[in-house]
Write a structure and sequence with these properties.
287 residues, alpha/beta, five-stranded mixed sheet, 7 helices, 20% strand, globular
Length: 287
Amino acid sequence: MTTALVIAAHGSHLNPGSSAPAFAHADRIRATGAFDEVREAFWKEEPSFREVLRTLTADEVYVVPLFISEGYFTEEVIPRELRLEEWDPAAWDSDGTSADHATFTAGDVGATVHYCGPVGTHDEMSDVIVQRAKSVTGDPDVGPGVGLAVVGHGTKRNENSAKAIEYHADRIRERGRFAEVRALFLDEEPEVDGVTGHFSTEDVVVVPLFIADGYHTREDIPEDMGLTDGSGEWETPATVDGRRIWYAGAVGTEPLLADVVLERALDAGADVETASVGAAGTVEGSR
């Protein structure tokens, strides 16, 4: 039996960097040899969700959405475009953060498709957020005496958008590694504006739970936190209200996220138990 992995991401007609994490993680996983075929697919770029299954010859396909939360794209757009017969969001039996996987037949090509939950709600994403804090500070022991802000978009149109951010903030807080952990948002309370008011620590690490760097992570969040005056440039760390702010940029660019993609496929039954990309982005095993 042959297997394929599809990494399904949003992409953008306006931001060429939007698709970069999907290509980078696909390359890392391709190098492990864990799958016979690895493809990227996008909503706003080529190859599209609608076409990607036609480019594969594998008997079984594992589709992992490179999205943060369960919602419109993971529950409606991707299953529809892949033509997953009998798809229903209830198949995930999720509370908004617990989607695992479900198996269907793609209507037009007849392939067996294991449709996985988004990477953003997988438990291992908490480790990626911590790794992002290590990367931006250059300190593998970062945590004691330091505050951590996990920042998401948030929207009243999709309650699951905030659930994913709060889920990981709660998990990291329970570990007791950081002095303080907060979930903050762009479009709902508590907002990332005035980030220093949410912490008592001198140092605050800010990790946006976004897949790619773009308008929100390069302009909105830095401006809201007072890191930049609109020039699009800032120092790391930057001093705001007497506190040092370590702004990490999108968590989706962290190499360790490739291991979350592998974990999603492993949970769905893929034979990838020994494959790993690792925090440094280097292949540590193969099938």
